[in-house]
UniProtKB/TrEMBL annotation:
Residues 7-24 have a biased composition (Basic and acidic residues). Residues 95-181 form the Core-binding (CB) domain. This is Core-binding (CB) domain-containing protein. One of its GO terms (biological process) is DNA recombination. Pfam families: Phage_int_SAM_5 (PF13102). It comes from Paramagnetospirillum marisnigri. Transmembrane segments: none annotated. Keywords: DNA integration, DNA recombination, DNA-binding. GO terms for molecular function: DNA binding.
Length: 302
């Protein structure tokens, strides 16, 4: 910065800040409700500061409106709610739900071995964080849960949630609230509404369907191209193995030859069967094949 020509020995000074604009303020209830706004703002929104008797400190909020009457109604409603909480012995400066969700997600993602269910729960909580806004954990009620489920339906792709999805969301929210209870952020978990879970089972796969499938597979493998025949034969035996063992696709993907063991015949005239040790979303388990023919299907894959 260039020196002043008139005072060459004078040190250069930084540019002085412009003075703040004048505050436009209102006081109600003998100073317990204080409204104020900056007049130099392009959109002068009213802010409020609440002083609750017998409670130290203040509660400050943005009224999110430029209308003085609406701002006072907001501040008065806030004052009454804080007064009720104070009488009931609640902390008027409790933990906000959004802040608690952030803390919960950070704590869960910090663990080295994170289950898929935990990852999905964290994704769900991050998605519903905007719904809560400035709501505090100790302000959550049964009505909050009902409104949240309605909000989730509205923001879903089809504007409708299946009964199983609603049940899973409610379970994830309870897990989060249990964590908040352990952290002493809430005194108790709010009651959840009775969910109307309808029967949404998949249609079962009966013997007639299985016969139709096997008939189709016999024709499916017939092709002029030998490479296509080989690929379709592999697929047909793969389908037969899944159908006669009940293992999942993910379990079959990790299956190795060492995971298969023979089961001797228990009675004379019976064929020896096999058992498969698989690992999937429900953990490790051993599955006994429905028929000894599964051994033949497995050998065809060699």
């Amino acid at each position: 910065m260039a020196q002043d020509n008139e005072n060459p020995g004078k040190k250069p000074t930084t540019m002085e800040r412009e003075p703040k604009g004048t505050l436009d303020s209102r006081t109600f209830r003998d100073g317990q409700i204080y409204l104020f706004r900056r007049q130099d703002y392009v959109k002068p929104i009213w802010f409020c500061r609440i002083k609750v008797p017998s409670i130290s400190g203040y509660v400050s909020r943005s009224t999110r409106t430029t209308n003085e009457h609406e701002a006072f109604r907001f501040a008065e409603d806030l004052y009454n709610r804080m007064l009720v909480k104070s009488i009931q012995g609640h902390d008027i400066n409790g933990k906000r739900v959004s802040a608690a969700i952030t803390e919960y997600v950070e704590a869960q993602t910090a663990t080295a071995s994170q289950k898929l269910s935990t990852k999905l729960r964290c994704q769900y909580l991050e998605r519903i964080k905007p719904f809560f806004g400035t709501l505090q954990l100790n302000e959550m009620t049964t009505a909050t849960v009902v409104d949240l489920l309605a909000w989730m339906e509205k923001h879903s792709r089809t504007n409708e949630l299946s009964p199983n999805t609603i049940k899973r969301y409610a379970t994830d929210l309870k897990q989060f609230l249990n964590w908040a209870l352990e952290k002493d952020y809430i005194a108790k978990i709010p009651s959840f509404p009775k969910l109307r879970i309808g029967h949404n089972r998949r249609p079962h796969f009966d013997q007639r369907d299985y016969a139709k499938l096997t008939r189709y597979l016999r024709e499916f493998v017939k092709h002029e191209n030998s490479k296509t025949v080989r690929d379709r034969t592999m697929l047909a035996n793969y389908v037969l193995i899944l159908a006669n063992t009940g293992i999942r696709v993910g379990e079959a993907r990790t299956l190795k030859w060492r995971d298969i063991r023979d089961i001797p015949a228990s009675k004379a005239g019976e064929s020896a069967n096999i058992a498969l040790y698989v690992t999937g979303k429900t953990g490790p388990r051993e599955v006994v094949a429905r028929t000894p023919d599964v051994k033949t299907y497995l050998k065809r894959l060699l």
